[in-house]
């Protein structure tokens, strides 16, 4: 059995040798630049050396996974890894990427406190909340965020928890089970404080949804405070099982009025509600920025989901051999066009959405700086709307792609993809809720179409970031295929945006003319009109920004390959819109559709020798991917066998019982 | 807090009252007729009464889930529930349906022994294996099936385990780790016997892949026999975690030549290999029937996946209220067109694919009876090919739809869909491998296009079941919309079949003319040609057979609603093909595409008042669905809250440790 040492798989290094570019350069380009990459590698090494960060080869129980996350969180503090955005932005940014790639659960454990809780306190609180922020930053208190209620998720303005001003205090109540706060990460076991949203009542009048910070557990005993009931929501699939999502009920819970996050409003000493908001819309815009930040971050979940799918799927498919020409060896399955079709567009999406997100974060940081500096300009208002519109459709686009990518990668890895140690199902389950949180994708995308409709209605044809500049162009139908496929795709998208925008506008008007209210009219004009409009807007912007980023790359070879990657992303995104392009009359006859399809096949073929090296450039370290199928040494079979050998069985735990059944069956009379 | 008793959800009974048909009649129609339904209900009641069949509200560890499955298997034997197809076909058929709906893992535990092991022994063995079959039927031995190897799944002809005739015995060897038998359910802990496929060597000559039955564990001790190594493959996602999928290595394992399943071949006493096969193809056709049976069964997994998705998704969406007109109550989300789009096509797919599968099983049983009777006719050969072709594309179509349905249902249920107690992620993971086993979908679908290509090439324009009768028609492009939308859809599909068949044929010829071998040519002509051809063939047959079944329904009201359901299934299946219909010139301009899209919207609207009652007609009992969101009483919120209240938390298990960290942070100098 000496042949036991020979791998039945093909060599990854052989694939690597086919690439046309320098791997190190590509890696820096695709991982945020050399400085960021150096920091990332530093953090990766700290984690890899510590056995606590080794991923177990089995599903942990809820209790086990939460304890492990608690221990890992302590280690992160112990190592002084950067969790505070304001104290060390570069470090924070690099470490955030590392956490996102490593484990969504641990990332959430840290981010819900350091990012979401502190962020909301900072943006909605005032001087009187500074001390709490300081304590939170030093982890002397643990925060959580309570907005969603059992019966209100998307419609946050209708939440039903009340905070009533009574005798100089605020009294919190949950009027019925539907008002139970739910899904609050860190609440069930760790949190000492909660950021709570509730309807504020002063003098018997409802002043609408406000934010409050309240203590939920005793500082000394860590027991839940009187007037509150807190519990766990049970198990969830994937990494998020390690997050203690909690529920909370208020039973006449009293606290000081200091709990009110009073930026722009307050309760006076004599019990009156005062505010500086011009309108409800104005009040809501305070938190608009913070909400966009969450969504832009979640675009990164789509990037990471595609990254993991491409890493595991492509490496395994490069190694796995199956079938071959009648008189030849079996071929790596990645050489089959059908297998390339399943995986290369995922790789392209990860890279292009990553480049898009890098730029988006840059622009958003500049925007936030202007906002925090107190700037008040019409251009900033326009920018707010644009950031909101763009994040509302790119978050759905990226997360839908990411979850679909992991599902496809599992299937593309065949039966072995279904092993726990492939990690693909666990990853799919982990990324699954990204389609829902911070705005259910289908509902969120409506914000983008609403933005475009409103811009058009107001006759605003340009925008600060330039994403609506297509409004200045006249839509021209297809005249002939351009040598650069990207120009064809962009022209088609611009036409499609005009078409779906005009069609949605008209459909809305028709509905209103026939007596529908605005609410009904909007709901009836989503499918086939507003929805593809929002997606096309997201996709075109991603494609354009990715291409702009690639144009700026100095290294010729890297740039050349990435130009192809952008083109593959572009044609693969356009494919599902072909029907509308034909129905709407952008094109007739076979040429346009056939060209798009041929272009995608050709790009998948030409990128085939590059793809293993491209995966190396985006992949997380092996200990973080932790997939038997996706290690960088290409030893998928050996990894599986090592795990299998550790599970050799002689007798089942229930063997005696089984023998009893078998014996009994031997003596049982025949039926 | 008296309002705690008021549900924040809408009433399912109100939805039910809108339906136009009799629920009891519909239930019998959609669950295989009154007799079968009566048996199903009887078995359901036996299981529901036994606490062992209550589903736990948490993920079980691998050990726990396997023990539970072992115990449930014992109960199934104890209750004498019908597992033997030949002893009691009606009971077996009804109980199989119950098991499939209840738990795929338990179903597999039973089916792998009673169906797959016994079935293979029966079809490939002879008189000398009768005793083993008898023992297996009485559960005096436990069987498993070992075909797949670590490095060979799809390409089964290339497996590398060897069975060598030496000195009157057979010696089994695994020449390298790639030849390790893997994925064999029941092998790791329970099996006493295995159905093993290996390359047979007699007199130094390889006679190709043969089936053997070998004993793997000692009868008295249940220990693994010498010469074998057996182990577990570790955890899997979903229900299949309870199946002990095993691996096995042969280290000069010796046994009698009786192990050879010798139908049509044998090893003589003087050590010569003899056979009655005319060709390799002929030899393989022995098992063709059995393989089709597996696939036809798996179409049912697609049906059940859609059934579960529709049950949970539609019931929850009928209850869940969110948003509403400015001055009105919030509306059940199922009233929004976008939500209907997500769920109603799933309901339609479950119903139509179910009707298709009922007919397919009927026809297949007749086919098998003819085969077993020893009939040898040209028509039976044609029927074999047709059964193979049709099962090879309907299995992929159904399982892809099923898995996608569960993913969509989870997202359509929003955040609460992500709770373990919604079961949707677990169900998705459970059905996930149906896309891979008994033929990876993408590879399997090629068998269907190959069948159609070969029929056309041979000029055979009709088939025993009539599925290729489209070959007799002349493809006519779209002339105008017919009043009955189904006629439009069928005409478009028939055109599409001609188009993709001709295109695939031409592409293959082009490839061969340019010097490609047949293998390469086939691989290069899948995407955009052979693949959509196979899918269109599956979909059109499903649509036609579902419509035929509906036409035979006596009850006017049920028939009328189901006619609409078939039409919804038809237009929703056709939508992804619109691009090819335009590229190929079936239609030009907006009419055809717009009509298809409008028709789908209109059908979703008209079926909206029927859908909750339709779900009742296909749903499994509440204890089997076991989803907090999908109970038939519509008390989704109450179910969630009951689970949450059972998880009330005062202090975390790691509270003391957490307090220590917090204390330490208080005294730590500021960074």
Automatic annotation (TrEMBL), chains A, B:
Residues 289-453 form the Acyl-CoA oxidase C-alpha1 domain. The keyword ATP-binding applies. Residues 25-142 form the Acyl-coenzyme A oxidase N-terminal domain. The active site is at 438 (proton acceptor). Its main location: other. GO terms for molecular function: ATP binding; FAD binding; fatty acid binding; pristanoyl-CoA oxidase activity. One of its GO terms (cellular component) is peroxisome. Pfam families: ACOX, ACOX_C_alpha1, Acyl-CoA_ox_N. Gene3D superfamilies: Acyl-CoA dehydrogenase/oxidase, N-terminal domain (1.10.540.10), Butyryl-CoA Dehydrogenase, subunit A, domain 2 (2.40.110.10), Butyryl-CoA Dehydrogenase, subunit A, domain 3 (1.20.140.10). PANTHER family: ELECTRON TRANSPORT OXIDOREDUCTASE, PEROXISOMAL ACYL-COENZYME A OXIDASE 3. This is Acyl-coenzyme A oxidase.
């Amino acid at each position: 059995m000496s042949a036991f040492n020979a791998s039945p798989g093909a060599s990854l290094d052989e694939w690597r040798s086919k690439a046309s570019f320098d791997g190190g350069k590509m890696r820096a380009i695709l991982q945020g630049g050399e400085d960021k990459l150096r920091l990332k590698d530093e953090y990766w090494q700290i984690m890899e050396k510590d056995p606590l960060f080794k991923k177990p080869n089995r599903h942990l129980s809820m209790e086990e996974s939460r304890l492990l996350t608690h221990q890992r969180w302590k280690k992160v503090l112990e190592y002084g890894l950067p969790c505070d955005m304001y104290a060390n932005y570069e470090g924070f940014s690099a470490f955030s990427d590392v956490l996102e790639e490593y484990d969504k659960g641990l990332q959430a454990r840290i981010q819900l406190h350091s990012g979401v809780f502190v962020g909301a306190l900072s943006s909605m609180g005032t001087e009187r909340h500074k001390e709490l922020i300081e304590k939170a930053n030093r982890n002397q208190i643990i925060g959580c965020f309570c907005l969603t209620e059992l019966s209100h998720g998307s419609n946050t303005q209708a939440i039903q928890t009340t905070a009533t001003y009574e005798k100089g205090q605020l009294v919190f109540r949950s009027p019925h089970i539907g008002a139970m706060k739910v899904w609050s990460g860190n609440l069930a076991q760790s949190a000492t404080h909660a950021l709570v949203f509730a309807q504020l009542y002063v003098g018997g009048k409802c002043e609408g949804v406000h934010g409050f910070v309240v203590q939920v557990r005793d500082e000394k005993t860590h027991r839940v405070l009187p007037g509150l009931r807190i519990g766990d929501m049970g198990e969830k699939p994937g990494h998020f099982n390690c997050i203690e999502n909690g529920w909370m009920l208020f039973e006449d819970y009293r606290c000081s009025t200091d709990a009110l996050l009073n930026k722009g409003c307050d309760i006076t000493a004599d019990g009156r509600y005062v505010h500086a908001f011009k309108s409800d819309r104005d009040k809501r815009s305070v938190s608009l920025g913070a909400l966009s930040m969450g969504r832009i971050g979640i675009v990164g979940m789509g990037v990471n989901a595609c990254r993991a799918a491409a890493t595991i799927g492509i490496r395994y498919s490069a190694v796995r051999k199956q079938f071959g020409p009648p008189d030849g060896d079996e071929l790596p399955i990645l050489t089959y066009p059908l297998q390339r079709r399943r995986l290369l567009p995922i790789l392209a999406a990860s890279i292009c959405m990553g480049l898009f997100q890098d730029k988006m974060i840059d622009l958003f940081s500049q925007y936030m700086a202007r906002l925090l500096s107190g700037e008040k300009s019409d251009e900033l208002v326009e920018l707010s709307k644009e950031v909101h519109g763009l994040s509302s459709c790119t978050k759905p686009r990226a997360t839908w792609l990411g979850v679909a990518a992991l599902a496809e990668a599992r299937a593309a890895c065949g039966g072995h993809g279904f092993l726990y140690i492939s990690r693909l199902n666990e990853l799919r389950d982990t990324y699954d809720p990204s389609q829902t949180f911070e705005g259910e994708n289908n509902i969120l995308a409506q914000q983008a179409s609403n933005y475009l409709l409103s811009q058009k209605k107001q006759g605003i044809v340009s925008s600060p970031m330039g994403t609506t500049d297509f409004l200045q162009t006249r839509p021209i139908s297809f005249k002939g295929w351009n040598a650069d496929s990207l120009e064809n795709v962009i022209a088609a998208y611009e036409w499609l945006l005009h078409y779906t925008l005009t069609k949605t506008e008209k459909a809305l008007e028709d509905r209103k003319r026939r007596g529908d209210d605005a609410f009904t009219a909007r709901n009836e004009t989503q499918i086939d009109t507003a929805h593809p409009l929002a997606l096309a807007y997201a996709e075109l912007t991603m494609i354009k920004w990715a291409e702009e980023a690639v144009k700026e790359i100095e290294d010729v070879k890297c740039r050349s390959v990435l130009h192809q990657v952008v083109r593959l992303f572009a044609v693969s995104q356009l494919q599902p819109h072909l029907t509308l392009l034909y129905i709407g009359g952008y094109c007739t006859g076979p040429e346009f559709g056939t060209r798009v399809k041929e272009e995608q096949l050709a790009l998948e073929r030409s990128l085939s020798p590059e793809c293993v090296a491209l995966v190396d450039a985006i992949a997380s370290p092996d200990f973080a991917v932790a997939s038997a199928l996706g290690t960088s040494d290409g030893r998928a079979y050996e990894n599986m066998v090592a795990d299998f050998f550790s599970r050799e069985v002689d007798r089942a735990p229930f063997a005696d019982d089984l023998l009893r059944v078998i014996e009994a069956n031997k003596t049982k009379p025949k039926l």
